Amino acid sequence: CDLADADGCRSAGFCWAHALLGPTDDVKAGESFAKACDAGNLLGCSDLGMTYERQQRDLSHVPALYKRACDGHVLEGCVNLGRVYLSGLGVAQDVDKAEAL
Fold it and tell me: How far is 99 from 101, CA to CA, in rounded Å?
């Protein structure tokens, strides 16, 4: 990840999120997922959205992260975006959009 490898950043985030590099650290996981997302790893964008949800922070950014992943044909991003529309997290609740996703 330090060498700007998007897949490496996503992997590092996964390791921090699942206590594979020491204790679980959502801050370090989020930083790694953000680097992955910025470098084009769209699964990292979805992972970052989930990390924000766990931390209950930056919730206004969550729908855009999931949308970016979904627009890139990452199924997990579409499922999460649908869940966001169903619950109204950071967006107006919209059951029709949720079902479509």
Answer: 5
Classify residue 100 by its DSSP letter: H
CA 84 – CA 78 distance, rounded (Å): 10
CA distances from 62 to 4, 21, 70, 99 (A): 23, 25, 12, 18
Length of the chain: 101
**pLDDT tens sequence across 46-101:** 999 999 999 998 899 999 999 999 999 999 999 999 999 999 999 999 999 999 99
Residue with the larger pLDDT of the pair 29 and 1:
29
Determine how many CB atoms are found less than 10 A away from the CB of residue 25: 16
Phi, psi of 69, rounded to the nearest 5 degrees = -65, -45
